Amino acid sequence: MHFVDAKGILTTNGGQCGMNIYRGCSHGCIYCDSRSKCYHFTHPFEDIEVKQNAPELLERALKSKRKKCVIGTGAMSDPYMHCEEELKLTRKCLEIIKAYGFGVAVQTKSDRILRDIDLLDEINREAKSVVQMTLTTYDDDLCAVLEPNVCNTKRRIEVLERMRERGIPTVVWLTPVLPFINDSLENITAILNECVRVGVKGVIDFGMGLTLREGDREYYYAALDKHFPGMKHKYIQTYGNAYELPSPNSRELTELKRQICKENGILYKPDEVFQYMSELPEKYPQMSLFDITGNEE
Question: Could you read off the pLDDT of 8-37 as tens digits, one per residue?
Answer without folding.
Answer: 999 887 557 999 999 999 999 999 999 999
